[in-house]
Specification:
The complex is a heterodimer of chains A (about 350) and B (about 160).
Chain A lengths: L12 H4 L3 H10 L6 H9 L3 H9 L4 H4 L7 H20 L4 H4 L1 H20 L14 H8 L9 H17 L2 H22 L3 H24 L4 H4 L11 H9 L2 H11 L15 H19 L10 H25 L4 H7 L7
Helix pairs in contact in A: 3-4, 6-8, 6-17, 8-11, 10-11, 11-12, 12-14, 12-16, 14-15
Chain B lengths: L1 H39 L4 H9 L3 H16 L12 H38 L4 H28 L3
Helix pairs in contact in B: 1-2, 1-3, 1-4, 2-4, 3-4, 3-5, 4-5
Chain lengths: ~350, ~160
């Protein structure tokens, strides 16, 4: 699918009704999304067992986590399989493939990062859901078997990531190179889509991803040259601004963010901190902002927006479930968890 | 006589054809969403079929108007009636309300039904209310049929 001929997302009045089948399915699946009441119940659960019982009563999700060992790796695996199977279901539809392409790419690029890191750490491949890509083949290519067939996009990603890792001798170089390739595909999606909402959403997503990258580089006090591994030209964050966000003093960062028009994603507006918890809070605000862009379109009867919105909402739900279930497993305080969870799609 | 009959039959064909197209498109739109709902929840067949069938009535109204014309012309048994050009055009114009309104209302009713299928997929308890919304679109097809019948009856042949 990744290398197939481009079919722009069709949103013209006559084409919008063709999303009817997908929207019918999405409406049923939406009953399995978290809502504020359920999330609150999960957060108030006394322990992991009680949280597990609450999840077991949620449509679809209950089945996903049924008979899964109550430990973080097993929960993560089950949730990842669930999300991937939903993405594949939607991709199976003629128009759905293009709607789900962002999530397919997101999944493939994150698996690729994991695979490269495991290879460098000489760890086993582990279990990855089968999809469009043959991960064993990719794994062999990473190990140096260059004759293995790997789609051009991933071949390019692997080669560049390995090259930059050797140059910088830093595992983060792999993250940045692969993120840049992923973001370049997201920008391509923004150019192809006919939906003005999705076009803007993709652009904002890229801007947020660059900001996250810039602040992480800043936190780790890496050089500006290192930051070039992730930067790519985009409509919101210019290269000069990007560099300034990395190198300027903390008090200037707020001003620069205001110049770009993105100061609303900074926690404690007016005070920027080079602190991992501050960045985690900022990432939460970014997720909430991206969700809020999609929320007004959730009840549209036609068009790609409700399908895309559902997939993103599911993605956020999985983050929330991981936060809560892991938190309960490690007996974290309810208030700490409450600070971390994202908003729900349906309020 | 021949010209008048041509216009009359054209009116009948428009009523049946356009209203039928409206219904086919409407039923198709609602059917796609209904199929999506039933893929995930086959127990909703009863509600889905009801909402999918609603836009199908425009086609029936169009057919009724078409037959009304044929009966008026005596083409369905009995002696064929002679119609001049003016009468033929009057019959054709009389068929336009159900032809045009049937076409458009069928499509819009299909869209409303599809939206309401999304409603019952998430909230099965709202089926009663969900049926009322597309049924309101139906009102205008019924009015158009009534107008067509009254117009046809007012023409002396």
């Amino acid at each position: 699918m990744i290398d197939s001929a481009v079919t722009p997302l069709q949103t013209g009045a006559s084409k919008n009704t063709e999303y009817g089948y997908l929207i019918g399915r999405v409406r049923v699946w939406e009953s399995g999304l978290l809502n504020p009441r359920l999330l609150d119940q999960l957060l108030r659960a006394d322990n992991a067992d009680q949280a597990g019982r609450i999840v077991s009563e949620i449509p679809q999700l209950g089945e996903v986590l049924q008979n899964v060992a109550q430990n973080p790796p097993s929960i993560d695996q089950a949730l990842m399989n669930h999300f991937w199977s939903l993405t594949e279901e939607i991709s199976g539809h003629r128009l759905g493939a293009k709607v789900a392409e962002f999530f397919t790419l997101l999944f493939h690029f994150s698996q690729l990062k994991l695979l490269l890191k495991r290879h460098l750490a000489q760890k086993p491949l582990g279990s990855i859901p089968e999809g469009v890509l043959d991960w064993n083949r990719i794994s062999r290519y990473i190990s140096g078997e260059k004759e293995e067939y790997v789609p051009d996009l991933f071949r390019q990603a692997i080669d560049q990531a390995k090259l930059q890792y050797e140059k910088w001798n830093n595992i983060q170089a792999i993250e940045l190179v692969i993120d840049r390739l992923f973001l370049s595909r997201v920008l391509k999606l923004s150019r192809e889509t006919e939906s003005s909402l999705l076009k803007n959403w993709f652009i904002v997503y890229v801007a947020f991803a660059l900001l996250r990258g810039a602040f992480r580089i800043r936190l780790q006090q890496r050089s500006l040259d290192f930051s070039q591994l992730i930067y790519l030209a985009n409509p919101m964050v210019r290269e000069d601004d990007f560099k300034e966000l990395i190198s300027a003093p903390a008090d200037k960062v707020v001003e620069k963010m205001a110049d770009i028009g993105l100061s609303s994603v900074l926690p404690d507006q007016g005070v920027f901190q080079d602190d991992p918890y501050y960045l985690a809070t900022m990432e939460k605000i970014m997720d909430n902002y991206l969700l809020s862009m999609l929320r007004p379109y959730q009840l549209n009867a036609f068009g790609p927006e409700p399908v895309f919105g559902f997939l993103f909402a599911k993605n956020i739900d999985i983050k929330n479930l991981r936060i809560v279930l892991h938190g309960k497993y490690f007996e974290m305080d309810e208030r700490d968890l409450r600070d971390k969870v994202r908003e729900c799609y349906y309020e | 006589m021949v010209d008048g009959l041509v216009f009359s039959l054209l009116g009948s064909a428009l009523a049946v054809g356009l209203a039928g197209i409206g219904s086919a498109v409407g039923v198709g739109i609602a059917g796609e969403t209904g199929a999506g709902v039933m893929t995930e929840d086959p127990n909703k067949f009863g509600q889905v079929i009801l909402l999918q069938a609603l836009p199908g009535t425009q086609g029936i109204y169009g057919l009724l108007a078409g037959f009304w014309v044929l009966i008026k012309l005596g083409l369905l048994g009995g002696t064929p009636v002679e119609v001049n050009v003016a009468q033929g055009m009057q019959i054709m114009v009389s068929c336009l309300p159900i032809a045009i309104v049937g076409l458009l209302s069928g499509i819009y009713q299909g869209k409303t039904s599809a939206a309401c299928l999304g409603l019952i997929a998430r909230r099965p308890g709202e089926t009663g209310r969900a049926i009322i919304l597309p049924a309101i679109v139906e009102t205008y097809a019924v009015l158009a049929l009534l107008a067509t019948i009254l117009l046809l009856n007012s023409i002396q042949v």
